Amino acid sequence: MAARRASGFLIYRFFSNEIQYLLLRASYAGYHWTPPKGHAHSGESDFETALRETREETGYIEKDLIIYKDISRTLNYRVKKKPKVVTYFLAQLKDPFLMPILSEEHTEFKYLTKRETILLSGYKNFGEMIEYFDKEIRKIHSNAQINL
């Protein structure tokens, strides 16, 4: 059975001298928290899917983000006993005050610290991905005047 493909962006911002990550709460069964993501359409690349899904779910478009296309992580897991593959690309929100405009797929959003993001997700592989992205962000911004 072929795995369902999905992709999105792990979006972060600098706010109050800290790194914060965007999570959205699903409006359907489980009401789980994830970054913006969704299933690929036929013929669509992972990156194209991430751009489209982020626009649909948050209103953020490519010009709102600094996208690190070469920094990504892929998670493999099962949903209802079916394999799923989700690729996340790293993206920084340019304007830390720009709030998302949610679609009907989500009921709320939160910008959270690394620790809060990992705790809210509740999944080991997701937490490992956040740790990886956090290290990459710290490398990118190692000369910035923020409390990293």
From TrEMBL:
Domain Nudix hydrolase intervals = 2-137
InterPro entries the record matches: NUDIX_hydrolase-like_dom_sf (IPR015797), NUDIX_hydrolase_CS (IPR020084), NUDIX_hydrolase_dom (IPR000086), Nudix_hydrolase_domain (IPR051325), Tetra_PHTase (IPR003565)
The record's listing under CDD domains reads: NUDIX_Ap4A_Nudt2
One molecular function GO term is:
nucleotide binding
Q: Which GO terms describe its biological process?
A: AMP biosynthetic process; ATP biosynthetic process
Coiled-coil stretches noted in the UniProt entry, renumbered to this chain: none
Keywords (alphabetical) are: Hydrolase, Nucleotide-binding
- Family affiliation: Belongs to the Nudix hydrolase family.
Name used for this protein in its record: Bis(5'-nucleosyl)-tetraphosphatase [asymmetrical]
Question: Which organism does this record belong to?
Answer: Polypedilum vanderplanki (Sleeping chironomid midge)
Question: Which lineage is the organism of this entry classified under, starting from the top rank?
Answer: Eukaryota, Metazoa, Ecdysozoa, Arthropoda, Hexapoda
